[in-house]
Structures are given as C-alpha cells and as structure tokens.
Amino acid sequence: MKILAFSDLHHSSRHAVKLVEASKDADLVIGAGDFCNMRRGLPEALELLSGIAAPIIAVPGNGESADELTAAAPPNMLVLHGTGTAFEGLNIFGLGYGIPETPFGDWSCDLSEEAALDYLDQCQQADILILHSPPKGIADQTSIGQSVGSVALYEAIERLQPKLAVCGHIHDSWGQTGLIGSTKVVNLGPTTNWFDI
C-alpha cells in the first residue's frame, strides 16, 4: 500500500498544491495535524486539499480541536483522536494535540502526559500510529536544542512496536527520523512523504 503522509500544513497553498498532485498515486493519505493556524481558517485550509480523492486519515494538531476537525472534515477524511480504525488490513491508531502542554496559550489544543496515557492505554495493537507530537528524544528538538517530545508517546511506541509512527508539531525537526525498537518514527512536515506498507 502506498501511503502519502504530511503534517503541519498551516494553511500553506504552496505545499497543498504539491500534496494534491502527489496524492493521485496514493492508496491512503495521512494528515498528522495542524491544518490551520491558531484555530483559525480550518475550513479554508481543508479546501486547499479538496483535490485529494484518496481516503484521508487525520489527527488534530494543537492548532485545531478534534471537534473542529471532525466538523470541517470532507467526506473522504476520517478523524482519529484517541481512537483507531482498520484500513485495508492495517490497524491504525491516532492521537493528536500538543503533548505535553505547550506554552502557546489558550488557543493551543494540548494534553498532559497523564491524559495522553489514558488515551494510549486503550490501544492494544497498531500497525501505524498517527500522532501530532513526537515522542521524547526523537525528532523533537527545537531550534535551541531543547527536547520537547512526549514520554507517554515514546512508551506507547515502545510497547506497541507499530511498523510506522508519524508525527509533526516541532517544525525545527521536520524530516528527522529515528527508531524505537524496530519502529521507524518520522517527523513529517508539510512536504511529500511516501511510505510503502
């Protein structure tokens, strides 16, 4: 299965055009959160992706709530947040938001490590984890070298050992990868990322 994945579109028409074009070859498209900016312009951001005909599975970032993304989602988009689904024989689990809490203020949709654990404990098996935040210590460094990823997400990946875990959120780490056991972890960014699973 050919999977196209991205994160942190942030209402960028330049990136959206490339993603829509690439999606013609995709069996599944994954969106790992932050489609808009600071909870504003979500319908317009999703409209930029309206040329994607393939099924989309997405999680909310810290820039949109799960309810907002679900309400604005086109018919071919399934939103996961602390929930899972089966797609073409793959078990996929998603958890969005900033984990741990960000310093960005009231607009940011965040979860504490404890709240994230409550969601993650419900997942007993996954082939793919779709996350917005990165796990602690992998693809999670800010421009000043601070590691701001989630311990709860690291522990979940370590426990579940999915084939793939994708994330975004930390812009300075876009494109970075790492391993937790045998699981490849990728901080996607808004560019075209291909996976064959």
UniProtKB/TrEMBL annotation:
Record-stated family: Belongs to the metallophosphoesterase superfamily. YfcE family.
Organism: Roseovarius albus
Annotated Calcineurin-like phosphoesterase domain residues: 1-192
SUPFAM superfamilies, sorted: Metallo-dependent phosphatases
Lineage, highest ranks first: Bacteria, Pseudomonadati, Pseudomonadota, Alphaproteobacteria, Rhodobacterales
Protein name as annotated: Calcineurin-like phosphoesterase superfamily domain protein
A Pfam family hit: Metallophos_2
Family matches, as Gene3D superfamilies: 3.60.21.10
